[in-house]
Amino acid sequence: MNSGAGGGSGGGCAGAAARSRGGSPGGDGFAPSALGTREHWDAVYERELQTFQEYGDTGEIWFGEESMNRLIRWMQKREIPLDASVLDIGTGNGVFLVELAKFGFSNITGIDYSPSAIQLSGSIIEKEGLSNIKLKVEDFLHLSTELSGFHICVDKGTFDAISLNPDSAIEKRKQYVKSLSRVLNGKGFFLITSCNWTKEELLNEFSEGS
């Protein structure tokens, strides 16, 4: 596994739980937060879906537009083929998928465990007139067998949210690493953007799945 780890802040970091260096109740260094629960994100995307249907507003770009551009520039610099298979883990409103498709990538898939997120991203993709994007309701911690062999896996905040889950966050992080090892091609690249982890911490966290 090749990791491109990006720590630091971005547009999507507003409201994210801060690292508790003194330790959390779970001894994990993070204070549990509603941001780590499925119920929170179901409610978020239900609201965003309704807003899109009423006003055409696509909603927030997680970590901001520059973070998407930075990822695409990295892929361009690495000369990633436009037909390389790309998986967006926790795709949300699917805006990153739209940007990838506009850039020319033709084999892209977005997954999210929130049905409302997938419905929203599907509506946005349809509005953009794009047809080469696959979407699937999928919990990355409990994957179906059909997802595997991706050349690029992208995470913009999903691992952050899992790290804040009030229920067994450490075990869920370990399961995330196992799931990533399953879906990512052995010579593929994992691109992660985070506002709760430093680059060094991310490299250490994912080293067991290398």
From TrEMBL:
UniProt feature coiled coil, ranges: none
GO MF term (any one): protein-lysine N-methyltransferase activity
Reaction catalysis annotation: L-lysyl-[protein] + 3 S-adenosyl-L-methionine = N(6),N(6),N(6)-trimethyl-L-lysyl-[protein] + 3 S-adenosyl-L-homocysteine + 3 H(+)
Listed GO biological process terms: methylation
Origin: domain of life: Eukaryota
Chain ranges of the Methyltransferase domain: 84-207
InterPro entries: Efm4/METTL10, Methyltranfer_dom, SAM-dependent_MTases_sf
Keywords assigned by UniProt, alphabetized: Acetylation, Cytoplasm, Methyltransferase, Nucleus, S-adenosyl-L-methionine, Transferase
Cellular localisation: Cytoplasm; Nucleus
Region span, Disordered: 1-33
GO cellular component: cytoplasm; nucleus
Enzyme class: transferase
CDD domains per UniProt: AdoMet_MTases
Family according to the record: Belongs to the class I-like SAM-binding methyltransferase superfamily. EFM4 family.
Record HAMAP family: Methyltr_EFM4
This protein's name: EEF1A lysine methyltransferase 2
Species, as recorded: Panthera pardus (Leopard)
Gene, per the UniProt record: EEF1AKMT2
